[in-house]
Structure formats: C-alpha cells, structure tokens
Specification:
Number of helices: 2
Order of helices and strands: HEHEEEEE
Largest sheet: 4 strands, mixed
Distance between the termini: 24 Å
Helix content: 10-25%
Structural class: alpha+beta
Strand order of the largest sheet: 1-2-3-4
Shape: globular
Oligomer: single chain
Strand content: 25-35%
Amino acid sequence: MSAWSCWTASLWSVNLKTLPTRPPSAPLRRRFVEIADTTLSSDRRKGSLYARAGVPEYWIVNLADDVLEVYRRPATSESSRFGWTYSERQVLRRGDVVTPLAAPGGHVAVDNLLP
C-alpha cells in the first residue's frame, strides 16, 4: 500500500460532539485534516478541542496561504480555549514533504494536498 493510500485511508469526518472531554489514557491513532479557505480562524480554534481529546496530529490544508499547517504533541495550556494546545507547529510549503505520525515510513508531498 502506498503512503498516499495509507494517509487517505485514515481520513474521516468528525462530529465535534463525539470527541471526549478529556484525553484518553492511550493516545488516539488518528489525525484530523481540515481544508480551510474562509474557515481558517475557526479551524485553528478547533485545534484546542482536538488536543484536549488526545488527537496526536492535526493538519490544516490552508488554501488562503497555500501551505499545510501540521500540529503535533497535545499539551495543556491555560491560555487556550479548551485548556489544551499543540506544542509543535510546522508550516510546510510546496516542495516540502510530511511524514504522518501514524505512518512513519510514509511520505506525503504538500504539492499533492494543495490545488
């Protein structure tokens, strides 16, 4: 199975009401991907909720700035909306490659995510 098919197979749509209210005892092996154009600010705010739920990796395909934002390592944060944030943030541009946490041997070209 290619890295791309592994990556796309793990995508799923999220209902925010189904997220746990506190981190689970074992990390979730999921990643959330938001496609953002006009919803960029609200998609970034959702990151605090995803971090609180223990989602280890959160990506925003930022169409407005033509970049991929990758958030990793959920951590507590008193200043964040839901008390959690991601301690690691990467901004990747065309030509860059990202390795999903759930597929350490896989690589996804940022060019393949942007229109």
